[in-house]
Amino acid sequence: MLGHLMLGLAAASAVSANPETPDAVAQILASPRFEQAQVALRKDHDRLVAEIIRLTEIPSPTFGEAERAKAYAEMMRTSGIADVGLDAIGNVVGIRRGRDPALPPLIVAAHLDTVFPDGTPVRVTREGSLLKAPGIGDDARGLAALLALSRAMNASGIVTDRDIYFVGTVGEEGRGNLRGVRHLFDSDPRARTASGFITFDLNGSDRIVTRHVGSRRYRIIFSGPGGHSFDRFGIVNPVVPLARTVTALYAMTVPPDPRTTYSASVISGGTSINTIPATAAVDIDIRSLAPKEIDRIDAGVRLAAQTAAREENAARSVAYGSISVRFEEIGERPAGVIDERSGLGAIAFAAGRAFGARPRFDAVSTDANLPVSLGIPAIAIGTGGRGGGEHSLEEFIDVEIEESLRGLNAGLVTVIAAASKGGGAPVR
Ligand SMILES: [Zn+2]
Fold first, then answer.
1. What is the pLDDT of residues 273-321, one digit of tens each?
2. Which residues lie closer than 8 Å to 44 by C-beta, 6 or more apart?
């Protein structure tokens, strides 16, 4: 199964031009019920905007999603999604029944959390069709889009072959480390059999994430005896191996393809100008589309850190104690790439093209990283409508209706096609 999905990266980028339109997409586009669904989406657009604003104005930092989850569960119920509940980790999960419960379900998701800590002002301001507030695009719009798609399917009487799980996940951002989607697949045996996973976690309607950027993040902590900088001059200093480790990291080469990056980001340590520090720490962020590249850089950094600690102990006095080094895991997101010529990638591409978007395959890190690592085809797509400033206080979205509907219509076709018997997944 995995071999079928996980194309060589070079092959993926080589073929990402223009996949054929899958039959399921063509059939849906031609169906009168889908026409009705489009009318319903247009009629319902004001409600969508109101729900985006309502969700945005409920603070929902990572690890603090409970209040928004409760409200979202209620909104799912009033959007005709059944069996809605919160799972043990706080994800909101509901099901829209399909024709054949024996079929593996499709999972459609958006994330509940934002990067903004409690206390961040989240009141939405509006100028024409521009709405501004932290977290409004990432990912309040995605959450509201799921509700609008469910209502449009209900209004037009569309029944899919597969059941569709609707999920508001916790912990997608930063230190959340995908804990919500990880829990969903760990704890729900039926979810584990899913035919596909689609997360609405982008602005616009052009980008289709089929290349899931993996990451490994950790803190390296060097510890030593510390002490008065004059009295104890000549003893080991944890800042030295830290600096040497960072230098060694930045001497490492990475390939342009598969895109691989590293960063020494947050550094900390030291107490006062006249004190040799007892600890010095640096946070490391390694990302790549290829798991083996993450492993290679990671191994290089860990070796450099251990070598630098050893060399510092050899270079200076350890009379008051020596330097030790330890690694504190911050997060791990599996990498993966799915086929772009068939299945979910091709469906989303054809759906976008049908509504005048300029679809292109892209590489990002989202909740979709996790199901792909389990062999389940997964993509991230847009909600429609312009937006920007994600992860900043200047975040904004544009709810101008035509651009918004372009993405919603394409998203609806993608979901219905992926939830059809042949749609989405390669035949198991
Ligand atoms: Zn997001």
1. 999 999 999 999 999 999 999 999 999 999 999 999 999 999 999 999 9
2. 148, 151, 152, 155
Q: How far is the CA of 34 from the centre of ligand 1 (A)?
A: 28
**CA 64–ligand 1 middle distance (angstroms):** 16
Centre of ligand 1 to C-alpha 172, Å, is 7
CA–centroid distance, 107 to ligand 1, in Å, is 17
pTM: 0.90
Which residues surround the ion ligand 1 when the cut-off is CB under 5 Å?
A: 138-139, 201
* Phi-psi map region of 423: left, alpha, beta (phi>0 left; psi -120 to 50 alpha): beta
Please count the CA atoms within 13 angstroms of the CA of 345 that sit on its side-chain side.
28
What is the SS3 assignment for 340? Answer: coil
Residues 175-200: pLDDT tens digits?
A: 899 999 999 999 999 999 999 999 99
Q: Tokens 């010529």 identify what position? A: 341
CA of 129 to the centre of ligand 1 (A): 22
Task: Dump the DSSP string for 83-103.
Answer: EEEE-TTS-EEEEE--S-TTS
| Domain 217-333 coded CATH 3.30.70.360 | yes
The alpha carbon of 384 and the centre of ligand 1 are apart by a number of angstroms equal to: 14
Say which CATH architecture domain 18-213+335-418 belongs to. 3-Layer(aba) Sandwich (3.40)
